[in-house]
Amino acid sequence: MCDTAQATAADASLSTPRQVQGSAVDPIALTPVDEVRVTILMDNTFDALLVGDGHTTRAGFGAADVPAGQFETDRTAVGLLAEHGFSALVAVRRGDSTTTLMFDAGLSPSGIVTNADRLGMRLDDLQGIVLSHGHFDHAGGLSGLSSKLGAMRMPMTVHPHAWTRRRLRGPQGIFDMPTLSKRALTAEGFEVIERSQPSLLVDGAVLITGEVDRTTEFEHGMPAAHEALAAGDWRHDPQVIDDQALVVNLKNQGLVILTGCGHAGVINIVRHAQRLTSVPRLHALLGGFHLSGPAFEPIIPPTVAALADYAPQLVAPGHCTGWRAQHALAAALPEAWVPSSSGTTHQLVRA
């Protein structure tokens, strides 16, 4: 979510660096894992012609299994869906034990379940859901997931501010974003767990960051057009305070970090994960980097420079990263950068 509106000095002051509210455990003993598989269930793009490599598997068009009367067989192949949303399945293996979580749920009710079906993935193997933040393009598929799985008690980790009512005030008018309903999610069978501080899942092998420290000088959050309803008034909401990331410590390799939109700033997120875990090495950074549009393009150079200093082995930006940032990241990190696409699986293994 972004636009070209200019913030005032008062708006800018709201997004200056701050520390997370409340106590934090520092460091957190994050149990190293043997393997992490991240499958991009939904992203803004789908490219059936992308080629995989040693640690990346791509989805193609698949079998011709969709009815289409204009073809001689009355069938066609359609590949996967893409939409302005993000969702990933994260499978973490420790020895012979594997646990799969869903990180975000895409935009549309049918999107992630359709792609899972076409990929042949069983969503009833899920053992939990994490929402990176409350924006509707990361939670829209929850109703479709509930309909597919039926009655369940699926644990879902969210920040308490995920229920915040938000809108965009732009030159063409006001867009009221669909707002998540805790009541509706609970009625659908999700066991909602609200946490603003760091959470350890999967027997201590997966860290959910909670609120992220804002410590860089250049990541200032959302522009003035992004507003939230607070105490009956609409106010500039630069921080998207509910933004959180998923972190895994891959044995002998370093941190694997998955972001939804990275509203806290991806460098802030990396720093925060390093501080929480005392693991200095960044192995992989995947997800939305939110560097798209005139409001964010000025911070592309310092973001890319800071990320290059970490020398990650894999950088797979998608969703809201934007084409200018993609080009810059590909140029600065040619061995690490991998284009994202719905249906891509990244398999990362311990050294």
TrEMBL record:
Highest taxon in the source lineage: Bacteria
Any one Gene Ontology molecular-function term assigned to this protein's record: transferase activity
Pfam families registered for this protein in UniProt: Lactamase_B
Limits of the Metallo-beta-lactamase domain: 93-189
Gene3D superfamilies: Ribonuclease Z/Hydroxyacylglutathione hydrolase-like (3.60.15.10)
Protein name stated in the entry: 7,8-dihydropterin-6-yl-methyl-4-(Beta-D-ribofuranosyl)aminobenzene 5'-phosphate synthase
